[in-house]
Amino acid sequence: MSEQLVTLSRKDFVSDQEVRWCPGCGDYAILAAVQKVMPEFQVPREKTVFVSGIGCSSRFPYYMNTYGFHTIHGRAPAVATGIKLANPELDVWVATGDGDGLSIGGNHLMHALRRNVDLKILLFNNRIYGLTKGQYSPTSVLGQKTKSTPFGVVDHPMSPVAFALGANARFVARTIDVLTTKHMPDMLRRTHDHKGASFLEIFQNCNVFNDGAFDYFVEKDVAADRQLFLEHGKPMVFGAKRDKGLRLKPGKLELEVVQLGDNGVTEADVLVHDETNLPLAFLLGQLEPPEFPIALGVLYCNPAPTYERMVHDQVNATREKLGAGDLDKLFRAGNTWKVG
After folding, report:
1. CA distance linking residue 126 with residue 148, whole number of Å
2. What is the tens place of the pLDDT at every residue in 190-211?
3. What number does CATH give the domain 10-234+273-307?
4. Is residue 29 within 8 Å of 21, Cβ to Cβ?
5. Closest C-alpha to 240, from 252, 254, 226, 253
6. Which residues make up the CATH 3.40.50.970 domain(s) of the chain?
7. Are the C-beta atoms of residues 258 and 246 closer than 8 Å to each other?
8. pTM of the entire structure?
9. CA gyration radius for the chain?
10. pLDDT digits 0-9 by tens, 139-156
């Protein structure tokens, strides 16, 4: 007998916990967007799990009226992997930050991505450690003054999407906390619908310890010229007048911005976005204003068999070949090693 579809509303996903982020924090917008789209997936709340590590973003499970685990620093991907392996039918989400996920948790995040565990990973990137009051993070920019770098950061920042692509993630996307009307909900839908490890970077403003970190491509007077919205199969055109585009430099594997109409350049000369093109995804993930627009949307999507399904298939195939195991017999099988 097939399971009946559930009918839920946004209110069903709002918990009874007081939301305790700083007033004006971008996390509020992300929470609202997630609660808004969750009913669309028609997944019962008892089959939905949110897992987090430590950080401002990691309070997320408290505010979702689903099952959840607030784990330890950086270990959310490992715990989420265990949950998905134990019960592949669960809808498992991971809420992490640039510090939690890319510093102490970088190793766990890397392996969850390369294994292609069917997790929906939301990485809130505010380029700072917010919960511990303003130390620099792996994504803080060169020269940024923080509580732990009063004379400026001397580390080169890492790109979360480049990290994910380098770890062989099969779905990598990006959005901004202020794009709550359409873009962020669309990216959350794509993140959910992908079967396998889904990685969504969300630029999120920390208005207390790193306010305005993304103003240089978010403010209204510059946004149109510094944001490129990617759509599979469509030319990469942007600008307030839709008169700019991206193309490959002649003879080089490098992108350049072109002005439509100059020197006979037309939209036909502009690169068409292909979500399945991994080298292109790497190039797009490295673009940075003001020379280039920031690439938003799905950078890469190329599904592959999921880790938990392959593990269970292997167990079933082995059981069919060798028969059911006998734990008592295994324990009494003799010495596991010999000395001398």
Report:
1. 16
2. 999 999 999 999 999 999 999 9
3. 3.40.50.970
4. no
5. 226
6. 10-234+273-307
7. yes
8. 0.94
9. 22
10. 999 999 999 999 999 999
